[in-house]
UniProtKB/TrEMBL annotation:
Zn(2+) binds at residues 190, 193, 215, 220. The active site is at 182 (proton acceptor). GO terms for cellular component: mating-type region heterochromatin; nucleus. It comes from Tuber borchii (White truffle). It comes from the Eukaryota. Residues 1-25 are annotated as: Disordered. One of its GO terms (molecular function) is NAD+ binding. One of its GO terms (biological process) is pericentric heterochromatin formation. Residues 38-337 form the Deacetylase sirtuin-type domain. InterPro entries: DHS-like_NAD/FAD-binding_dom (IPR029035), NAD-dep_sirtuin_deacylases (IPR050134), Sirtuin (IPR003000), Sirtuin_cat_small_dom_sf (IPR026591), Ssirtuin_cat_dom (IPR026590). Gene3D superfamilies: SIR2/SIRT2 'Small Domain, TPP-binding domain. Keywords: Metal-binding, NAD, Transferase, Zinc. This is DHS-like NAD/FAD-binding domain-containing protein. Belongs to the sirtuin family. Class I subfamily.
Length: 337
């Protein structure tokens, strides 16, 4: 986002959706993180820092933007994965098609998908957590991060001990601090028996998904016992593609329901364009609960503006236009470790 030439108006009054009872009018603050503007935006900066340092039940919903400084490209920007994959893989359409369940219906797409996940896995294993990842870990260590809902499959966040998760996600609590909304590249799973193992990138080459070793062993045992074979499943990365069922869907629903009931006092939406309908719905519901809480604040941190539309009118109290790394640096919270 190009720097603005002059500080924008800092206060903007907008009406929220009419609920059952008339809510107090909310003030939307805008805070572009440019050097010129920062000098004139002390009230907004103080508000942001106060939230990060004082709020007790913070929910963070994060997207690819928090991993860019770690060397992981985002998805939808001009230099993001969707754009680069189209050129690198010589695809006819957007690189988004490599994240669609239909990749397994076409040999060429399957081969390209396997190459992509190998490369992406290589990048993620070499990446180190950013300042913002460490800020989240600090909030968790202090007991003030109620939940991190991560759309990222890079698993950089869950490398940090305070942000560890569990795979698969249980339908009943207690739940881990981090909820992976779209799975993660650290695991692979059998499409038939559900066997789960650490991801082995070298297995995913060419157009044929690798056989499941657990299924092969089971068929061998059954053969020795004179029983009929049950068939061998195929391994795949445990990430959720477009147009397929999320195996953790029921558990994610249970977590969000519990978190909404616990009445968080702050919501931070960071590094995401909110294009995925399910995530967009979680954000909208969480914003409503937080804003209904006395002193509750909702924050948008991104290079791009928040989503438009009637369902997102007035849902963010503080809009921070810029790099989340700058936010982490300004917060100056002690390192969790």
């Amino acid at each position: 986002m190009p720097p603005e030439t002059e500080p924008p108006k800092t206060l903007k009054i907008t009406a929220s959706e009419p609920p059952k009872r008339k809510p107090p009018q909310r003030i939307n603050l805008r805070l572009p993180l440019t050097e010129e503007v920062l000098k004139a935006q002390k009230p907004q900066i103080d508000t942001l820092l106060r939230l990060l340092r004082k709020k007790k039940k913070i929910v963070v919903i994060a997207g690819a933007g928090i991993s860019v400084r770690a060397g992981i490209p985002d998805f939808r920007s001009s230099g993001g994965l969707f754009s680069s994959l189209r050129n690198d893989m010589k695809l006819k359409t957007s690189g988004k098609e490599l994240f669609d369940a239909s990749v397994y219906k076409d040999d060429q797409l399957t081969s390209s998908f396997h190459e992509m996940v190998r490369n992406l896995h290589s990048m993620t294993t070499q990446a180190t957590p950013t300042l913002f990842h460490h800020l989240l870990a600090t909030l968790a260590t202090q007991g003030r991060l109620l939940r991190l809902y991560s759309q990222n499959v890079d698993c950089i966040d869950t490398q940090l001990e305070p942000l560890k998760t569990t795979v698969p996600l249980g339908n009943k609590g207690p739940w881990p601090r981090t909820i992976q909304l779209h799975g993660g590249l650290e695991k692979m799973v059998c499409s038939k028996c559900g066997w789960l193992a650490e991801f082995e990138a070298s297995l995913f080459r060419g157009s044929e998904p690798p056989d499941c070793s657990e299924c092969l062993e089971m068929d061998c045992v059954r053969g020795i016992a004179g029983k009929r074979a049950l068939g061998v499943g195929k391994l795949r990365p445990r990430i959720v593609l477009y147009n397929e069922f999320n195996p953790d869907a029921e558990a994610i629903g249970a977590v969000t329901k519990a978190d909404l009931k616990s009445r968080p006092d702050c919501l931070i939406v960071v590094g995401t364009s909110l294009k995925v309908p399910g995530v967009r719905r979680i954000v909208r519901e969480m914003c409503g609960v937080v804003q209904d809480y006395r002193g509750g604040m909702t924050v948008w941190i991104n290079e791009d503006a928040p989503p438009v539309g009637r369902d997102f009118e007035g849902v963010f109290d503080l809009i921070v236009s810029g790099d989340c790394e700058k936010v982490a640096k300004m917060a100056s919270l002690p390192r969790w470790d």
